[in-house]
Amino acid sequence: MIAKTKSFRRRPIAIGNWKMHMTLAEATAAARQLSELLGDARLVEIVIAPTYTALQAVGEVLKGTGILLAAQNVHWDDQGAYTGEVSPIQLKDAGCRVVLIGHSERRTIFGETDEMVRRKLIAALREGLSAVVCVGETLEQRRTGQTAAVVRAQLEKGLADATNGLFDRLLIAYEPIWAIGTGQVATAAQISEVHALIRQHLAKILGPDSAEAIRVIYGGSVTPGNIADLAAIKDLDGVLVGGASLKPDGFAAIVKTLEKARTGPH
Ligand code: PEP
Question: What local confidence, expressed as pLDDT, does residue 28 receive?
Fold first, then answer.
């Protein structure tokens, strides 16, 4: 168990989600540039999630840099007749250490349910991967005052099999759907409010020590221009970055700002 002390701080994390972008040559070139720009960043954990076809090649480039390789999705079974799917064992085999689960694009475009999230999460953790479970509300749900209920329900169902032993590799990403790829970033008050309810839920199901140790990050139109304000938010442990992670220098600037915020007073 992670000891809770007054000075206890969770290590900030920056995850770049490259979605369905970049050819192999582009992905490996971007990874090379990132290793040059961020090879010495130690205070912030850095994770890159390229498209499936580039996983292994990007993993080779990142070897020895400390930058971790992630997948954008995973299936819940180890193997089987699931055309088009990739298992946790295969992801590990390709060099992945981390996996995104329940990204809003998976939920809204591909019909992924909280039950699928639950199964994927347990499978990923069982195989030794770290899992980033994404939750968040639509604009309509926010406008009609349902944000807390929606996020709580996603956590309740998605983390239904939560047990302390497995969940030391769990991260939660709060990603309001209306902020993803729209240029509209959530306010500090909106982020703090939802992060607090996420941590309350984690405390309820896993106990206060685990809830204190698990990182809760934000995603939605994070850029080099707004990261300083985001990094100042109390209880924000990092960011999940889509569009702005496609440019290595922009993503590096985001990491450096997070790092600077960590070294300053908090
Ligand atoms: C995402 O895909 O998780 C995301 C937050 O995208 P963007 O940064 O482009 O809003």
Answer: 98
- Whole-number Å distance, alpha carbon 47 to ligand 1 midpoint, is 14
Strand segments (E) across 52-111? 68-71, 98-101
Query: Per residue in 90-124, pLDDT tens?
Result: 999 999 999 999 999 999 999 999 999 999 999 99
The pTM for the full model equals 0.95
Q: Which positions are annotated as active-site residues?
A: 103, 175
Q: Is the CB of 221 under 6 A from ligand 1?
A: yes
Residue type, 29: A
User: Both tokens of residue 34?
Assistant: 């990132």
38, 40, 55, 154 from 116: Cα distances, Å: 34, 37, 23, 11
Helix axes 248-263, 24-38, angle to 10 degrees: 30
Dist CA 41 CA 11 (whole Å): 12
> Residue 7 C-alpha to ligand 1 middle, in angstroms?
31
**Coil, strand or helix: which one is 49?**
strand
For residues 128 and 92, is the Cβ–Cβ distance under 8 A?
Answer: yes
Q: How far is CA 3 from CA 17, 147, 210, 213, in A?
A: 31, 32, 10, 9
Q: What DSSP line would sit under 141-204, residue for residue?
A: HHHTT-HHHHHHHHHHHHTTT--TTGGGGEEEEE--GGGTTTS-PPPHHHHHHHHHHHHHHHHH
12 Cβ inside 6 Å of ligand 1: no
Give pLDDT tens digits for 131-188: 999 999 999 999 999 999 999 999 999 999 877 777 779 999 999 999 999 999 999 9
Second CATH level (architecture) for the domain 7-21+45-261: Alpha-Beta Barrel (3.20)
